[in-house]
Design goal:
By secondary structure, the chain is an alpha+beta fold. It has helices at residues 23-26, 36-51, 119-127; strands at residues 10-16, 59-70, 79-90, 93-102, 105-118. It is globular and about 45 Å long.
Amino acid sequence: MDFNIPLGVEYTATEMVTKDNTASRYGSGLVDVFASPAMVALMEKAALNAVLPHLPVGFSTVGTEVCVKHTKATPMGWEVHSKAILHEVDGKKLVFEVIAWDKEGEIGRGTHTRYIIDSKRFMEKFSSK
């Protein structure tokens, strides 16, 4: 199946840093700043939403690889933004450039790979487990 997703599609996701997405809550650190796992999740959300409008009904994507650097801490009460830009399409494989920033500038950057799936068929694999 050819999905015809244009290169360069992008989406920006935003969230507020709260106690729920800090390093101390995730267990990835002991301080109340935006957690690296939360930044990765925001990047994945941006990538998913960049391509979702271009997929047929019943299809979605799943993340398979994340390669990012989290270079700056963001305190509670600040907004964090993440933009995903589609840079490569190889059949069902989608590769994105992902960038995250707060009001003082970039806080993280990297790449993220997702694969297109037929959601029903994907979930059927787990019904027998």
